[in-house]
Amino acid sequence: MLRCLLAAVVLLAACQPAALTLTPPPVARILNYWQPVEDTLTGETQAWQFVGQAGDAVRLRVLGDGISLALHSADSAALDVGADIQVTLPADGIYTVYVSGAGAYQLGLGYTDRPNPADITPTPLPQVVGVPTPTLPYYAALGEVLGAVVSGETRTGAFAGAGEQHIYTFEGQAGQFVNTRLARTSGATDPLLTLYAPSGVALALDDDSGGDRAAALRNIRLPETGVYSLQAGGSGFTGGYELSLFISAAAFAITPTIIPQPTETPVIETPPPTPGVAPNDSRLDDHVPVLGSFTRPGDVFRYTLAAAAGRALTIGATTLPGWNVRPRLEVYNPAGELVAAADSDASGSTLIPAFVPAETGVYLVYITAGSTTGDFAISYGEGSSREDVWRGRIEPDRPTNSTLARPGQREVWTVFLRQDDVISAALGPLAAGFEPALELAAPDGSTAALGSRSGRDALIAAAR
Questions:
Q1: CA–CA gap between residue 151 and residue 168 (Å, rounded)
Q2: What percentage of residues in the chain have a pLDDT greater than 70?
Q3: Most buried residue among 17, 89, 106, 447 by CB atoms closer than 10 A?
Q4: What's the 3-state SS for 164-222?
Q5: What confidence tens digit (pLDDT) does each residue in 422-453 have?
Q6: Alpha-carbon span 231 to 193, nearest angstrom
Q7: Per DSSP, what are the bridge partners of residue 355?
């Protein structure tokens, strides 16, 4: 009879591994159709990206001595190499062009089945007879123009209608920095603030970054000299507001207000599975016990399990408390041959330890009890165990003692880890003749690390 044995588990402190030195991929820049780009290589590889659609016939051409191109699809598949590439794109997506070599180069992208728009002669505009009507400034179409605002000034207003937008203009110089804020003073208005350049291009937009639903634009560098405009809106709500503007030659220093919040370690407890009654001819799953009952002397139960050649299995049955069942196990291979068998001990436990299948397939497990009757549990598992005993959470740097009550059991302890943590764990027996095994399993159940043997101890030295 196998004896009840003891085990000790020690989980050592987690720490972050030393940083690895990796070569980052080249940062890709945007390559537009019909717009050549120029650059210089000093031996490195440069990357350019463009958007293509399935069926587009494109051409990539590079000018420069010793410069080569490599075109890759969105899924990183290589499509073509050379100095002049003509391909039909296989799918919609973002394509990457890698430029390698040494020296100055010019790179161009275009279509082979359509003309360059720059080569089309535009239709001349008709001559205007008489005096043309002056064109209104672009910002007149963005909302109601309420006049100019200067640096350091705060203007107040109100949105009386759901779709109202107010426009304020200001003079700006190239290189200056603008800080502006639109805050609610009454009503339900939700401020929305947009900055437009003299050309009518939107430079920046904000909704809620100013705090208390206010909109704020911070340190926006003006690209040109001219008349800029601020569009103030209420996001469809009405109410009062105030608009402030500050213009400076240098960026304002912004000191964030950070309230540190401690990161709690989540308590993740996996409940142990509850064994269920499995009818005859049911399939057994790895480390999932099922229940059965011998109601008459001579009853026979049959179960199936999937096994892989060369991978050890442990199969066992246990009499449930209050019964005197003496189960016998027999295992048959896919050809119907008896390949393993075991009788119960005095406690009613039957174990076939570390049985190694010779072939892959479905094996049959028969369990009989002779003239005895009563309830039993049966299970199997890959490796040297077939039954899990859930122990809950284990803490770092704290030795923990426990007991394996019978052969074939596997105790499961849980610990919360973050990606790239490096841990060490040690397992030592507290009884003579006991050689326990130690394994670290990932959240999906796969094996992350196995303990190496050192005498009768098992050690995971540094598992990432």
A1: 12
A2: 87
A3: 89
A4: CEEEEEEEECCCCEEEEEEEECCCCCCCEEEEECCCCCEEEEECCCCCCCCEEEEEEEC
A5: 888 988 888 877 888 889 989 887 888 888 77
A6: 6
A7: 313
